[in-house]
Amino acid sequence: MPKLKTKRAAAKRFKVTGTGKLKRNKAYKSHILTKKTTKRKRNLRKATMTDKTNEKNMKKILPYL
Hints:
Radius of gyration: 15 Å
Number of strands: 3
Number of helices: 3
Structural class: alpha+beta
Shape: elongated
Helix content: 25-40%
Order of helices and strands: HEEHEH
Strand order of the largest sheet: 1-2-3
Strand content: 5-15%
Largest sheet: 3 strands, antiparallel
Distance between the termini: 19 Å
């Protein structure tokens, strides 16, 4: 079996927690921030876990994480 290549774009965006879950940053925090409320922007700062429905695909993309 040949070596698998890691998708570098995904590797830069996701980190694995101690329990094996994938941690990601939230989207919609880069521009057009004036119309977004302070509360919304504050909540976008926090990292969150990747959804269970995407986890199988993400493990395939990131074989060595």
